[in-house]
């Protein structure tokens, strides 16, 4: 049986996160790192030399040149969010499958334009939310789906924060309104929103309310904020995202019978091993000095880091399209729902923390 050729990737831009994805493409067994483009040819050459590009990889001094390369099957786009609409649409029109960094757009209207281009060209779209592809994630989902161990979901609390230094807060693209105007909400809040929707089986909340106390910089970009989400059946969730607090990556999901805790859901403490804790029908001992039964630790090992697993899954979808299948719609749908809730949080902040209804 003939071995199928790997999916050939090009990278649009030399952002810091692209270093991680270059390694991931090299690690994925069905992908090949074939090209990189920057607006500076020297920068692209230096990036390729520093990040494990093979000697035959092509180096381009413009994004257009890479997109015009007929030997590239798919592109990874780690560009500033303000550039996603133009370059994602153009990539789709050039028939390049698209692994698009999060947040996918500045708002859902922009993302809908990207979706139109992707659907018209019949190419695959997936966003770069890496933790969704970790081997731990389906194991956690199995627990949340277990009616006997977890029961019915009642509430989710998600937090992603890190203490950015003064240089980041002054110069990083994520605090510049013309580059990544969503700030901490787009960068860190995206992960929190995705985790909440994931726990809720991607059922959209009816109402979103931003919590008072959002911190904005002088340019109006969000540095820290929180929100509460509310469903018609009584479920609720909260999120907190920040560039101003110590590194935290927590999810707590509580059901009628059980609770799930994970403390490193975005980037595991270790690359090849991750854990989460579960408790079912927990209570106190007779003297109320301890818990019975105590929560248990579930350890998951993996042969590939989550970013390489993401590339492998994306490349499998691209290969399936090459073999006659249609693009997988699950991932674009999840992206759009995440963007919708993100938009609602931003709208609630802009409206003075008033409730905003989420309309699909």
TrEMBL record:
Residues 146-260 form the GFO/IDH/MocA-like oxidoreductase domain. Belongs to the Gfo/Idh/MocA family. Residues 7-126 form the Gfo/Idh/MocA-like oxidoreductase N-terminal domain. Coiled coil: none annotated. This is Gfo/Idh/MocA-like oxidoreductase N-terminal domain-containing protein. GO terms for molecular function: nucleotide binding. It comes from Ficus carica (Common fig).
């Amino acid at each position: 049986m003939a071995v199928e050729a790997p999916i050939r990737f090009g990278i649009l831009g030399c952002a810091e996160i692209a270093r991680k994805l270059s390694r991931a493409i090299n690690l994925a067994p069905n992908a090949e790192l074939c090209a990189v483009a920057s607006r500076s040819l020297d920068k692209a050459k230096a990036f390729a030399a520093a990040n494990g590009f093979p000697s035959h990889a092509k180096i381009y001094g413009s994004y257009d040149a890479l997109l015009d390369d007929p030997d590239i099957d798919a592109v990874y786009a780690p560009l500033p969010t303000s550039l996603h609409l133009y370059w994602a649409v153009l990539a789709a029109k050039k028939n390049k499958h698209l692994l698009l960094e999060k947040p996918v757009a500045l708002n859902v209207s922009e993302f809908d334009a990207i979706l139109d281009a992707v659907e018209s060209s019949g190419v695959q779209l997936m966003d770069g939310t890496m933790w969704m592809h970790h081997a731990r994630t389906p194991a956690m989902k199995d627990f949340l789906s277990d009616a006997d161990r977890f029961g019915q979901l009642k509430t989710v609390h998600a937090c992603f924060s890190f203490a950015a230094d003064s240089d980041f807060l002054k110069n990083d693209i994520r605090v510049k309104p013309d580059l990544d105007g969503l700030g901490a909400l787009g960068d860190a809040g995206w992960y929190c929103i995705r985790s909440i929707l994931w726990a809720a089986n991607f059922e959209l909340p009816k109402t979103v309310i931003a919590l008072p106390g959002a911190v904005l910089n002088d340019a109006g970009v969000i540095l820290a904020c929180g929100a509460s989400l509310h469903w018609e059946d009584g479920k609720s969730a909260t999120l907190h995202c920040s560039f101003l607090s110590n590194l935290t990556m927590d999810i707590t999901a509580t059901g009628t019978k059980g609770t799930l805790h994970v403390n490193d859901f975005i980037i595991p403490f270790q690359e090849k091993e991750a854990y989460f804790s579960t408790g079912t029908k927990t209570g106190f001992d007779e003297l109320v000095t301890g818990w019975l039964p105590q929560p248990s630790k579930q350890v998951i090992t993996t042969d590939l880091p989550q970013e390489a697993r993401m590339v492998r899954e994306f490349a499998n979808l691209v290969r399936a399209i090459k073999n006659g299948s249609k693009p997988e719609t699950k991932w674009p749908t999840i992206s759009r729902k995440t963007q919708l809730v993100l938009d609602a949080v931003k709208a609630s902040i802009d409206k003075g923390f008033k409730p905003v209804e989420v309309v699909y």
